[in-house]
Specification:
6-stranded mixed sheet, 10 helices
Length: about 300
């Protein structure tokens, strides 16, 4: 457009594609049936393409060149974000399928179709739909039984199952790392509190001598341990959230920092303080006041 150039993906699409992918336009209109049948030289831009070519200007009605062929921009799609494979779905330009086949295809067979996206009526019918599509394509391609198909089909349920397995494996790995970190951190807190009890033995003896009960001493050291872990948890949350935002900005990955995850992090921080702080607190509460006052 003008003196601006942008390398992107050009896809020929039927009007139904945007309904199947639930991808509405943010402005303008989508590719229609008349555009398909007439081989119109029109295009719909993804958000990334529109921002890089036009900035803040309205691209509707403007002319862009694709392979030196002028196309009129008729619409800009809503932001879609990254695909499960990590590619930017908004870095795409859609043109009518017929136009792509006739004007833009470099294939030996210009009327060929690279991929078809089919939507089943319900999730329960996915396997049946895949079987029927495979049989139909085998028939159209004249592929008899026993011969290998010259196409591949991908069932969304299979893709989701693989993604779910990968997610579970990653969750287990991260959970194991987090557990080890909590144990190491808890042991560190316990050692610090034990040193604190030793250094403050006379203080504990004086408090007991003027009327402090063992439960008061226990509560004091438990509170200190929990406060230490909560402060550490707060620092960890800030570092984690900051790191996630930096990675999101650099790699353009979507980031979600939920209140639930922050609450859970605080809960586990407090739990670590209670669990690993109990032994030092109990040791402090169990000191003999006379021996504590004599301690040098």
């Amino acid at each position: 457009y003008g003196n601006m150039n942008w390398s992107t993906i050009i896809m020929g699409a039927a009007p139904e594609l945007f309904d199947i992918r639930e991808w509405p336009v943010a402005s303008g209109r989508n590719i229609g049936q008349q555009d398909m049948e007439g081989g119109a030289k029109v295009c719909v831009l993804g958000q990334t393409v529109a921002e890089n070519l036009f900035g803040g200007d309205d691209p509707i009605g403007k002319m862009v060149r694709i392979k030196k062929i002028p196309f009129t921009v008729i619409g800009v799609l809503e932001p879609k974000g990254q695909s499960p494979q990590g590619t930017d779905q908004d870095d795409t330009v859609f043109v009518p399928l017929r136009t792509a086949q006739v004007k833009l295809s470099r294939s030996t067979f210009p009327n060929s179709i690279g991929a078809m996206i089919v939507q089943a009526q319900s999730e329960d019918l996915l396997d049946k739909a895949e079987e029927e599509i495979t049989n139909l394509l085998n028939q159209r391609h004249r592929i008899t039984a026993g011969k290998e198909s010259d196409f591949t089909t991908r069932n969304l349920s299979e893709i989701l199952a693989v993604a779910e397995q990968s997610s579970k494996a990653m969750s287990l790995l991260l959970g194991a790392v987090a557990s080890i970190s909590l144990i190491v951190g808890g042991i560190g807190i316990m050692n610090i509190m034990l040193v604190s009890v030793t250094e403050r033995t006379r203080e504990i003896g004086i408090r007991m001598a003027i009327g402090a009960r063992r439960n008061d001493i226990l509560l004091q050291f438990m509170t200190e341990a929990v406060l230490l872990t909560l402060i550490g948890g707060l620092i960890g949350i800030c570092l984690g959230a900051g790191g996630a935002l930096i990675v999101s900005h650099i790699l353009e990955w979507p980031t979600l920092i939920s209140i639930e995850s922050i609450t859970i992090a605080f809960f586990f921080s407090g739990a670590v303080g209670i669990f690993f702080g109990f032994y030092p607190a109990r040791k402090a509460a169990g000191l003999n006041p006379i021996d504590a006052l004599r301690y040098e």
